[in-house]
Amino acid sequence: MAERMVGKQAPRFEMEAVLSNKEFGKISLEENMKNDKWTVLFFYPMDFTFVCPTEITAMSDRYDEFEDLDAEVIGVSTDTIHTHLAWINTDRKDNGLGDLRYPLAADTNHQVSRDYGVLIEEEGIALRGMYIISPEGELMYQVVFHNNIGRDVEETLRVLQALQTGGLCPANWKPGQATL
């Protein structure tokens, strides 16, 4: 039986990544927590696919809005940092990513995907999972869905802002509206 994650401390991670400056480095949840940042962690199945670049570039195009909300965005797949870099170095018109404003992490041993419950074991790839983690390390939001559907960046921003109100947000709540 699956175990609840929301409302508990998020699984800690440290992964190799291609940083926004196209250099290799490490990213970790602990670093974001130390810097008092929210973490928007999202998993996608594979580099050089069709749906993935649409959502990865959409997140990058809206990165300033995440930054304004004190949030760090991290994309994760089970591909290597070398594959990530090759995809980043491929122009968007050629189904590449072009420049990204946030890191793409490599979960090559599948441990982080497994810890977050998105690993398709028999394929060695992740489902599309989105997690929002507070600066204190509490997992506040989780959504996992089939790999043929891209996520909605607008909804991710809305949920992040709702969580940051600290209040009760009714159905269809939008930033700037009153909480309950």
TrEMBL record:
What is the active site of this protein? C52
Q: Quick one: a GO biological-process term for this protein?
A: cellular response to stress
Q: Which UniProt keywords apply?
A: Antioxidant, Disulfide bond, Oxidoreductase, Peroxidase, Redox-active center
The GO terms this record gives for MF are:
thioredoxin peroxidase activity
Task: Kindly give the Pfam families that the UniProt entry links to this protein.
Answer: AhpC-TSA
**Which PROSITE patterns does the record cross-reference, listed alphabetically?**
THIOREDOXIN_2 (PS51352)
Residue intervals of the Thioredoxin domain: 4-165
InterPro entries, sorted? AhpC/TSA, Peroxiredoxin, Peroxiredoxin_AhpC-typ, Thioredoxin-like_sf, Thioredoxin_domain
GO CC annotation: cytosol
Q: Is Cytoplasm among the key words of this record?
A: no
The similarity annotation says: Belongs to the peroxiredoxin family. AhpC/Prx1 subfamily.
What is the name listed in the Swiss-Prot or TrEMBL entry for this protein? Redoxin domain-containing protein
UniProt lineage:
Bacteria, Bacillati, Bacillota, Bacilli, Bacillales
